[in-house]
Amino acid sequence: MTTPAPVTPPAQPPGRRRAELELVVAAAVPLAPGIRQLTLVASDGARLPSHPPGANLGLRWRPGRINSYSLTGDGDSPAAYQVSVLNVDGGAGGSAWAHALREGTRVGAIAPRSGFIPAAKARRHLLIAGGIGITPLLSHARWHVRWKNDFALYYVHRKGRAPHLDELRDLCGDRLHRYESRDALWADLGPALTRQPLGTQLYACGPLAMIDAVTTKAGALHWPGRRIRFEAFAAAAEGPRLPFRAALTESARQIEVTAGETLLEALERAGLDVPSMCRQGVCGECRTAVASGRADHRDLVLSAAEKAAGQWIMPCVSRAAAEDGKDGEHGELELRL
């Protein structure tokens, strides 16, 4: 998968816990087959924390588990948060829980954060969304309309399954380009990628196959990596698991990570409280500093440059890399924990 340059870092420093919120479901309505919109307000009726475009909200759906959902509304001191949730067949159960919520239910949450922020100084913004990946880009479109930025939105979805379509039409006008097949999308998007003015920023959100196609095509057309940003709505790829050791510099401890567990699970087993949400390598919440050692990066958050620098690891999916010349034997990671 082609990986772009680092995106704007989250406003929340890695490893620091975000504020806890108590929300109440004000409305829960279907938007399209299998997609439900939740409107959430503060339990005390107060205004909610502001957030930038592309931010996500973490909802606690069972003890120790948090699912992250993109906020679709205006983030300027909002009276309510809105998220649109796709019911994922065969998932862990978070989306089914969200679809079962009813008006008046209290929900624990953590304050919004964004690692998918619009580039404020870009000359033009090219937004590409696939399916439920429209949700963060809807908030981008609101921001661009508000600040009168030059942008276009390319939106591909299954037939009859286009959440927020009427809202997008009203908001974007002729800047919205909508498609019901990948071939139709690429008939327009392929040429569009060749004629964008210098200084255009590209954003993609949706299935991994779509993101890979977009970033690969843009790279082949010599788009600078720093001009490409994406957010994946899928789990990171799995790989072989071998046992390894993690040394913790701040607590002077040694943690043995078995082949059957993730580094994050091993740290939790040892009593460490590591911030985490998706546990799939896509949200970045568990980002942990590496003091030494080489990581086998399997996440979809760190850029190629960040992975090469070796300063961070996503312990929910990534592990220690095999030692040079020792096939099948993993080395040791030293973490700043």
What does this structure look like?
The structure is a single chain. It contains 7 helices and 18 strands. The protein is α/β, with parallel strands linked by helices and 337 residues long. It has a 6-stranded antiparallel sheet with strand order 4-3-6-1-2-5, with helices on one face. Strands 9-8-7-10-11 form a 5-stranded parallel sheet, sandwiched between helices. The longest helix is centred in the middle third of the chain and has 13 residues, at 134-146. Residues 1-15 have low confidence and may be disordered.
Strand and helix map with partners:
Blueprint (H helix, E strand, L loop, with lengths): L19 E13 L2 E8 L13 E7 L2 E6 L10 E6 L7 H7 L5 E8 L10 E7 L3 H13 L4 E6 L8 H8 L3 E4 L2 H13 L5 E7 L1 H13 L7 E5 L11 E5 L4 E5 L5 H7 L18 E5 L2 E2 L7 H6 L2 E2 L5 E2 L11 E4 L2
Parallel strand pairs: 7-8, 7-10, 8-9, 10-11, 12-18
Antiparallel strand pairs: 1-2, 1-6, 2-5, 3-4, 3-6, 12-13, 14-16, 14-18, 15-17
Taking the sheet with the most strands, its summary is: 6 strands, antiparallel
Alpha-carbon distance between the two ends = 30 Å
Assembly of the depicted chains: single chain
Mass-distribution shape: globular
Listing every helix as H and every strand as E from the N terminus to the C terminus, the arrangement reads EEEEEHEEHEHEHEHEEEHEEHEEE
Give the helix proportion (percent range).
10-25%
- Contiguous helical run count: 7
Radius of gyration: 20 Å
| β-strand amount | 25-35%
Mean of residue pLDDT? 89
Which structural class best describes the helix and strand composition? alpha/beta
Low-confidence stretches: 1-15
Strand order of the largest sheet: 4-3-6-1-2-5
- Number of beta strands: 18
